[in-house]
Amino acid sequence: MKKTTEAESNYKALEKMTVHQLLVNINNEDKTVANAVEKVIPKIEKLVTVIAQKMQQGGRLFYMGAGTSGRLGIVDASECPPTFGVPQGLVIGIIAGGDKAIRKAVEFAEDDTQQGWKDLQQYKINEKDIVIGIAASGSTPYVIGALAACDKHNIITACIVCNKSSELAKVAKHKIEIVVGPEFVTGSTRMKSGTAQKLALNMISTSVMIKLGKVKGNRMVDMQLSNNKLVDRGTKMVAETLKVSYEKANTLLLKHGSVRKAIEAVK
After folding, report:
1. In the prediction, which pLDDT does 56 show?
2. pLDDT tens string 28-50
3. Burial level of 236, CB count in 10 A (0-12/13-18/19+)?
4. In 3D, which of 133, 126, 123 has the Cα closest to residue 171?
5. Is 45 a catalytic residue?
6. Which pLDDT belongs to residue 160?
7. What is the pTM of this model?
8. Cβ contacts of residue 63 below 8 Å, gap of 6+?
9. Catalytic entry in 8, 45, 79, 177
10. Residue 1: pLDDT above 70?
11. Is 79 one of the annotated active-site residues of the chain?
């Protein structure tokens, strides 16, 4: 069966287009991605519910992928601690080829069907955890092998793919299939497919963290105060919530170390 992600672009002679035409056409294709994601919200909803339940029981969330898909997982995982104040290691991104593959492709790393499970074992993966395999094609051996091994060890699995009926979807319990159609540049899945995966990951991690109580109202009350911009943002949150001056709020924030703790200390 021909993969949608490998189907020929709807556009011809890209090199003959003006810069304006290129940008408009890419943008037109990108506009279709959110609609494709919308179609799978019920599937994402079920997955988010399970992840939140597992995390409340002490479980962790793993993202696994190769190339662009692996990098997207690492980006989402790495942003959870500063954004939501959760510990490092609660959400973990793993890429085929190891950390060096984040910046530079590691040849044939994604073709090893055994390495994914070995990489998971380094984290003492167990039945409390959930593993999401990310692969635009849905045919990455590294990810398929890891999820298949997880299934054998009663570990809940999911996938984010951009083809229907892929090999990865066959081994994943929760199947998120976001079919975005042919890429602007034929087969370049870092484009629409990557955007779809990024949107799905944003939805998953943000919704899970909200359900875990890491957001109050619409504010990141547990964010890490890791730079002046975030200290300023946190100070304004405290000032608005407690109806105190900026200076008083800043003093409270720096004393207690987080927006939540500063507010709770006074209320």
Report:
1. 96
2. 999 999 999 999 999 999 999 99
3. middle
4. 133
5. no
6. 98
7. 0.94
8. 70, 72, 73, 74, 76, 77, 91, 92, 93, 94, 132, 134, 201
9. 79
10. no
11. yes
